[in-house]
Amino acid sequence: MATVVLGVGMAAIMGALRAGTQVNSGASDMSRAVLLGQELRERIGQLPFSDPDAGQAGNSPGLDESSILLADDMDDYDGQVFSPPISSMGDSMTDLSTWSQAVDISWKNDNNIAATVGDGSSNTAYVKITIRNNNEVVLTTGWIVSQVPTN
Ligand SMILES: [Ca+2]
Ligand SMILES: [Ca+2]
To answer: Which of 73, 77, 84, 126 could covalently link to 51 via disulfide, CB atoms 3.0 to 4.6 Å apart?
Structure first.
């Protein structure tokens, strides 16, 4: 299976721009949030679309390893929340303990990515990342991944 990242679609910025005296801290929150999103994207983006182990290739989406640190496919990350956040190497960023990264993967109709289908039922998925600081959403971003069937 080949995994292709089609591009950074649907990036949306939410809640980060605050009024008045908080503008400066809002701006630095946003740069940090972008960085935390990139770290996770780098980590998840290198994984295959579905499990590379022959015996697990057809299993349901979600973590099928004993630890998220052992994740070997993209959908292992569905529903995961990292607080403190993790780096692209999987290290906990304990100095950013008020921050979190949440992953929500949804599957899309292969011919119409605006249409959501059942988890694991297509070859196209949207990986959505939500970055929060003190439980407030600072950034929502994501990307579309498509796998080309081998048959
Ligand atoms: Ca797996
Ligand atoms: Ca999996």
So the answer is: 73
Question: Who surrounds ion ligand 2 at CB < 5 A?
Answer: 51, 64, 73, 75-76
pTM of the predicted protein model: 0.80
* Interval between CA 77 and ligand 2 midpoint (Å): 8
CB distance 129 to 101 below 8 Å = yes
Distance between Cα 22 and ligand 2 center (Å): 41
| Domain boundaries defined on the chain | 2-148
Q: What is the pLDDT of residues 87-105, one digit of tens each?
A: 999 999 999 999 999 999 9
Residue with tokens 């630095």: 28
Cα(51) to ligand 2 centroid in Å equals: 6
